[in-house]
């Protein structure tokens, strides 16, 4: 079996084969959905008691009370102090850069006053409380803490509550260190659908949040879907994706490794290369075969590339950009000369990495922009996580007496047209009585 699919846009069946590769079955597992529905019901009805029971059952943590599941701040700071110097410096640099970038996203309230004295505007307000889910146990995702907590704090959210599972009581020190640096306010050693339910509904120990953000397994994703509406959520993300547009002059080994960088996430991840140089595609294919055996996650990379990866020969870079817009990838690398020129042709992508030195991996950790990005073609209508996700907007309307004379007549006319007489009367009550001549 080939290591990766080869496609050519000049083939009659190109579109059919491409769309088959892009297709991702997001069908929900009925057994997962049923289990999550029951967990959420129990948490909503029994609160702390249900959270404790599910934590004992799934994480094998024998806590007698919720107090035993809250990780004290002293433990975070101790974890931070115990980090190797180079890792701590890297984590601090990541927080610093992500904060600096997101500070540019801050929106300001505004208003204007019309000639008759009517004032109209918009008020920007941060959410009161946000819940952050972070995978735990042996997995270490400090970057998830940084990318979710920092923009929330830049937005002005007063309280960020982090939940993270601790199977068999294993608390990940790097995750706790990231919490200490990123501005998290409280940390609970709980995970799974029960943690999402506790955040969404609130319990005696955990205050209800306004929004739940952060990655998780299929149970966490199902729980987030179910609580949406009671609280906000960031997104329900699909598998990781990378699309690379290359002109054939970047070292083939670099491109192969960039494809690996997303393929290693899981077997359903997608890595695609578009290039007008067939000989370069041959070089990348050779590099894939040569470099993959040395990768610790070679089995996952291989499964991902065989199932959903592709090396695609395009006519030119213009065609590559048209295909990229159709795919609407999570991550798009434009590894070409004059990359900004080609980036101008891109309308749909979560993050655009321009130039040969802009590897997607830098965006995952420390470039500055958020790594929480739309997947599964949702970049056609959605955006990266940002400060704006942790703020809301309220309209401001202060109508002057003079303004009510004009607006009242307009509103009344439209209200009568809709058959809503009380609306019309409400506006007309504020009209000045006709003057007596």
Question: Radius of gyration from the CA trace?
Answer: 26 Å
What's the architecture of the largest domain, going by CATH? 3-Layer(aba) Sandwich
CATH class of the largest domain: Alpha Beta
- Quaternary state of this entry equals single chain
CA distance, first residue to last residue: 95 Å
| Unreliable stretches | none
Query: What's the number of domains?
Result: 2
Q: What does the main sheet amount to? A: 6 strands, parallel
Strands ordered across the widest β-sheet: 1-12-11-10-13-14
SS elements, strand count? 15
How much of the sequence lies in strands comes to 15-25%
Helix content: 40-55%
- Shape designation: globular
Mean pLDDT: 96
CATH-defined topology of the largest domain: Rossmann fold
Properties at a glance:
Rossmann fold, 15 strands, alpha/beta, globular, 437 residues, six-stranded mixed beta sheet
């Amino acid at each position: 079996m080939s290591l990766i699919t080869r496609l050519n846009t000049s083939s009659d069946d190109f579109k059919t084969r491409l769309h088959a590769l892009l297709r991702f079955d997001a069908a929900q597992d009925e057994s997962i959905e049923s289990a999550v529905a029951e967990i959420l019901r129990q948490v909503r009805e029994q609160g702390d008691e249900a959270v404790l029971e599910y934590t004992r059952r799934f994480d094998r943590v024998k806590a007698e009370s919720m107090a035993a599941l809250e990780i004290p701040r002293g433990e975070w700071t101790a974890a931070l102090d115990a980090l190797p110097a180079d890792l701590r410096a890297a984590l601090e640099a990541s927080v610093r850069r992500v904060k600096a970038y997101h500070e540019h996203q801050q929106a300001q309230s505004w208003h204007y006053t019309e000639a008759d004295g009517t004032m109209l505007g918009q008020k920007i307000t941060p959410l009161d409380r946000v819940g952050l889910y972070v995978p735990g146990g042996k997995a270490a995702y400090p970057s998830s803490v940084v990318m979710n907590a920092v923009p929330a704090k830049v937005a002005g959210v007063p309280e960020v509550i982090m939940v993270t599972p601790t199977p068999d009581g294993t608390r990940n020190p790097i995750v706790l260190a990231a919490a200490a640096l990123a501005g998290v306010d409280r940390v609970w050693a709980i995970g799974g659908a029960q943690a999402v339910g506790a955040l969404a509904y609130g319990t005696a120990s955990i205050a209800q949040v306004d929004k739940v953000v952060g990655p998780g397994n299929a149970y966490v994703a199902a729980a987030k879907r179910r609580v949406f509406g009671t609280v906000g959520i960031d997104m329900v993300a699909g598998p990781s994706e990378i699309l690379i547009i290359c002109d054939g002059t970047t070292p083939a080994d670099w491109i192969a490794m960039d494809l690996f960088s997303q393929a290693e996430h899981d077997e359903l991840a997608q890595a695609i290369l578009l290039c007008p140089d067939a000989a370069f595609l041959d070089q990348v294919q050779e590099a894939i075969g040569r470099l993959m055996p040395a990768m610790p996650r070679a089995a996952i990379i291989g499964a991902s590339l065989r199932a959903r990866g592709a090396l695609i020969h395009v006519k030119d870079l213009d065609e590559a950009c048209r295909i990229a817009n159709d795919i609407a990838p999570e991550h798009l690398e434009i590894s070409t000369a004059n990359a900004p020129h080609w980036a101008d042709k891109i309308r749909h992508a979560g993050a655009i990495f321009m130039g040969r030195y802009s590897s997607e991996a830098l965006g995952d950790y420390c470039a500055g922009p958020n790594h929480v990005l739309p997947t599964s073609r949702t970049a056609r209508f959605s955006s990266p996580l940002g400060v704006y996700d942790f703020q809301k907007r309220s309209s401001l309307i202060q109508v002057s007496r003079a303004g009510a004379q004009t607006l009242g007549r307009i509103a009344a006319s439209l209200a009568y047209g809709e058959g809503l007489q009380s609306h019309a009367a409400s506006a007309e009550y504020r009209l000045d009585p006709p003057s007596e001549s």
